[in-house]
Specification:
By secondary structure, the chain is mainly beta. β1 and β2 form a beta hairpin.
């Protein structure tokens, strides 16, 4: 329905990446194609160990991410340059393709990731 407000809940995702005891990412797609993903990474989580195998073992993360950090300390490293950036509570961020990451410290990392819809040009 064109002029209707759509609401969805992260507790009822369309899909999910389950990283067992180290967290996971829930995936919700809205009718227009916008995607929202709450991501939880527990202490000890690393992209290399916990997410890379779920993606088919690419050299680095093949996706870019736009999001907001609700808590924790996530260190993201650009693989080509080895430059690390710390993302913490309150940060709105844009991470390009070609990174890996790890949780730093004993606090769970909670992020909300957003993907804009693909509109034909």
């Amino acid at each position: 329905m064109k002029n209707a407000i759509e609401t969805r809940r992260f507790e009822q995702p369309d899909d999910a990446l389950n990283m067992q005891e180290f967290g996971g990412i829930s995936i919700i797609k809205m009718a227009d194609g916008t995607t929202g993903m709450p991501a939880i990474f527990e202490p000890g989580w690393t992209w290399e160990k916990d997410e890379k195998p779920l993606l088919g073992h690419p050299a680095s993360c093949p996706m870019s991410h736009t999001g907001y950090c609700l808590g924790g300390n996530l260190v993201v490293r650009m693989v080509d340059t080895n430059v690390e950036t710390r993302i913490t509570k309150g940060d709105f961020f844009e991470i390009p393709v070609g990174h890996d990451a790890y949780v730093d410290g004993n606090e769970r990392v909670e992020l909300i990731l957003f993907v804009a819809p693909d509109h034909p040009h």
